[in-house]
Amino acid sequence: MVATVNIVGAGIFGLSLAVELKKNGYNVTVFDKNNYAEDEYRNFEVQAASVDQNKIFRASYGKKLHYQRLAMEARDRWEKLGNGLFVASGMLRVQPTEDLGSLEQETIANMTRDGLREMLFVKGHADDEARAKQQGWFEKILKFSIPGEQQNKEFGAVLDTTAGFTKCSAACYYYYCLAKDLGVQFVFGVDAGNFDSLIKEETENGGSAVVGLRTKNGSEHRADTTVIAAGSFSTQLLPELAYHLESSAGSVARFEIDPQDVFLWDKYSPEKFPVITWKRRARDGAGKDVGSVYVFPRTEEGIVKIGYRGVKYTHFQPAPANSTFSQDNQWSIPASPEIKPPQVALDAIQEFVSIFLPELKDVPFYSTKFCWYTDSLDNEFVVDHVPQYANNSCFVCTGGSGHAAKFLPVLGEHAVDIFVHGENAKTPLRPFWRWRTDVERKNGLEEGPSGPRNLAK
Ligand SMILES: Cc1cc2nc3c(=O)[nH]c(=O)nc-3n(C[C@H](O)[C@H](O)[C@H](O)COP(=O)(O)OP(=O)(O)OC[C@H]3O[C@@H](n4cnc5c(N)ncnc54)[C@H](O)[C@@H]3O)c2cc1C
Ligand SMILES: *[C@@H]1O[C@H](CO)[C@@H](O)[C@H](O)[C@H]1NC(C)=O
Ligand SMILES: *[C@@H]1O[C@H](CO)[C@@H](O)[C@H](O)[C@H]1NC(C)=O
Ligand SMILES: *[C@@H]1O[C@H](CO)[C@@H](O)[C@H](O)[C@H]1NC(C)=O
Ligand SMILES: *[C@@H]1O[C@H](CO)[C@@H](O)[C@H](O)[C@H]1NC(C)=O
Ligand SMILES: *[C@@H]1O[C@H](CO)[C@@H](O)[C@H](O)[C@H]1NC(C)=O
Fold first, then answer.
1. Which ligand places an atom closest to the C-alpha of 184?
2. Residue 348 Cα, ligand 6 centroid: separation in angstroms?
3. What's the rounded mean pLDDT across residues 41-56?
4. Is the C-beta atom of 197 inside 6 A of ligand 6?
5. With a 6 A CB cut-off, is 229 part of the ligand 1 pocket?
6. How many A from CA of 417 to the centre of ligand 6?
7. How far is the CA of 223 from the centre of ligand 6 (A)?
8. Which residues form the signal peptide (predicted)?
């Protein structure tokens, strides 16, 4: 008999897993409270991290070689798709000062060790600039003056041509169509597709197994395995995840460029303009990133998006009695979409704009919003069977921690290996993505409601 799988969530994780499970012969149904068949992942007000014009693709992962390799595997697949969902625009890492920061130097050393040095171009480095001219990258080694410096000093910068961006919403829609073509079933909508609760049954030895799910309109959907892939909402659906995950918000602002404005349209096009990331200050003593801002080239619709991740805001609320972990009886969950980024975040974005996008300095934002991260306790994803439930009847596929979008084409293959083989999975990601209540809660998850990032304070 064909085993059936219900997946809750049609974002990056749910889609990628659905496609691979179907390819492996499972009978797969995906549920989502949002109707992506109708909006084609283009309603940017929807609260799903995957619904977004663009996300950064990078392969530089510092000492996390497993992600560097996964990123190069994904890059290869994005390129093989050949449909422009990945754009190799390059990414300019602008330094806090005119010199290369120590972290950047280490990144260069490590990428050199992995044979990727040729794909990096250091501003002001004669050999690199000559090579950039030959290869057509020179125009993207942009020069920015350091404000307040007399002798017109410029920020140090490294152009990383392994990097670029993915058209995230378009890629989700592509994978949704692919899944549908393969025969994955989708149930969408605030009633029919909206998860209400798990259906559980007691096993012979007194344990518990998940036998399906109930949706808000009262229907029951039985399955051999139920997968929670609901991004930053996952803890509310499966409180057993509360120890592993915390929702936090990144601040995003958008400008709209008029195609009639030929100068700006051209200047900020992906052909001319790379993704830019800038750390306003070096990492603090604790190695924490204190002020990073990034911008994408304009989209085909003329949207220029800027993100601030200096502070990822938490939103602590009373935790329900069924949550398996809380801090001062609270947990951080997404705030309603009406809650917008605070002025300090917008000020940081404005400061960035005045240096890096000077023509837009006095232009009002087209829109601002929070985008909710699903932070795990160590920045690794959480992809495993939930040990509390018998018969491998409950599986989780989440914990994107702000960096999973780039992996859409390959995430599912590794997740299915874990789904099918559990402890015996061959993927090198298995030890990193396992259910891990034995691991200490770090990555900011130790802060709790009294921490400095809590919006609800
Ligand atoms: C500000 C920000 C910037 C980021 N930048 C990058 C980047 O540059 N590069 C990169 O690679 N990654 C980036 N990421 C990370 C990436 O976007 C996420 O890791 C990824 O999109 C998470 O996908 P997901 O499927 O877990 O969650 P989501 O995309 O949130 O999808 C979860 C789905 O579950 C559904 N759902 C929720 N509750 C229910 C329910 N009760 N019933 C039914 N359905 C439900 C939701 O509607 C949603 O469609 C960023 C994330 C954020 C927030
Ligand atoms: C797949 O599951 C659906 C819903 O549970 C069911 O209606 C359908 O008959 C199943 N198909 C197969 C081939 O088992
Ligand atoms: C470079 O690699 C070394 C050894 O693997 C590691 O300890 C170090 O943290 C890496 N540097 C960066 C910037 O990640
Ligand atoms: C819930 O919605 C689905 C899809 O529209 C429908 O098939 C089902 O009958 C509904 N269930 C109830 C109990 O109304
Ligand atoms: C769990 O699996 C066992 C062995 O396959 C089976 O006998 C039992 O009925 C299953 N329990 C549930 C609740 O599905
Ligand atoms: C947990 O408890 C809350 C509040 O009592 C309830 O609304 C929710 O459905 C419960 N969640 C689960 C997954 O049991």
1. 2
2. 38
3. 97
4. yes
5. yes
6. 31
7. 21
8. 1-18
Buried (b) or exposed (e) across 348-363, using 16+ Cβ within 10 A?
bbbbbbebbbeebeee
pLDDT of res. 152: 85
Q: What does the block give as tokens for 41? A: 């992942």
- Supply the pLDDT for residue 282: 54
Q: Supply the pLDDT for residue 149.
A: 79
Protein residue closest via CA to atom 5 of ligand 6? 320
Question: What integer pLDDT is reported at residue 249 of this predicted model?
Answer: 97
How far apart, in whole angstroms, are the C-alpha atoms of residue 170 and residue 351? 30
Hey, which CATH number is domain 89-165+246-376, 3.30.70.870, 3.40.50.720, 3.30.9.10, 3.30.360.10?
A: 3.30.9.10
- In 3D space, the residue among 311, 314, 337 whose CA is nearest the CA of residue 251 turns out to be 311
Neighbours of 130 (CB within 10 A): 12
Q: How far is the CA of 256 from the centre of ligand 1 (A)?
A: 24
Question: Which pTM does this prediction carry?
Answer: 0.96
Q: Establish whether residue 203 lines the binding site of ligand 5, counting it when its CB lies within 6 angstroms of any ligand atom.
A: yes
Q: Is the dihedral of CA 108, 130, 127, 268 positive or negative?
A: negative
Domain boundaries, given as residue ranges, for the chain = 4-55+168-245+379-433, 89-165+246-376
Nearest ligand, CA 287: 3
**CATH number for domain 4-55+168-245+379-433, candidates 3.50.50.60, 3.20.20.10, 2.60.40.10, 3.30.470.10:** 3.50.50.60
The residue whose CB lies within 8 Å of the most ligand 5 atoms, and thus the one to mutate among 211, 225, 391, is: 391
As for ligand 4, residues whose beta carbon falls within 6 Å of it are 192, 217-219
Q: Which ligand 4 atom sits closest to the C-alpha of 192?
A: 2
Per-chain mean pLDDT for the chain: 95
